[in-house]
Specification:
By secondary structure, the protein is mainly beta. The protein has 2 domains: about 55 residues, no CATH class; about 60 residues, no CATH class. The protein is about 15% helix and about 50% strand. It is built from 1 helix and 9 strands. The protein has a 3-stranded mixed beta sheet with strand order 1-3-2. A hairpin with a 5-residue loop joins strand 6 and strand 7. The longest helix is centred in the N-terminal third of the chain and has 16 residues. The relative contact order is 0.19. The mean pLDDT is about 80.
Length: about 130
């Protein structure tokens, strides 16, 4: 049964993609035939329509993922902050051997804090 459904899905995908069917040109494939009947062993469910064989498959099964709602929850979020402060840089000679007077230079200090954060309920695959 599973093989029949898989083959039907592959053939349907090929038909939608415009690819030629893997069967001979005189074979018609019908997906979603009539009622099911018990067949003797070795008998294949085929019908002949106007002299050409037609393969009849059961109705296709559409599978959709189950969706569940995950509840909301509390977590924490890091809030970065940058603080600028000034430090004294004494006089020095630079790389060109020129004197640079002492001065204040800005420096950055990275800090931050954690804050509570509510994450809303959301739909997820179960």
């Amino acid at each position: 049964m599973g093989l029949h459904v898989a083959l039907a899905l592959v053939l349907a995908a090929l038909a939608l993609a415009g690819a030629p069917a893997p069967a001979a040109a005189d074979v018609r494939i019908i997906i979603g035939g009539g009622p099911r009947h018990a067949h003797p062993p070795g008998h294949h469910p085929t019908r002949f329509i106007t002299g050409r064989p037609a393969v009849v498959w059961p109705q296709p099964v559409y599978v959709a993922p189950r969706r569940c709602q995950a509840p909301g929850y509390w977590t924490q979020q890091w809030i970065p902050q940058t603080q600028i402060y000034y430090v004294w840089a004494p006089g020095r000679y630079d790389s060109d051997a020129l004197w640079v007077e002492g001065h204040y230079e800005p420096r950055a200090h990275q800090t931050g804090y954690w804050q509570p954060l509510w994450v809303d309920a959301r739909w997820v695959d179960c």
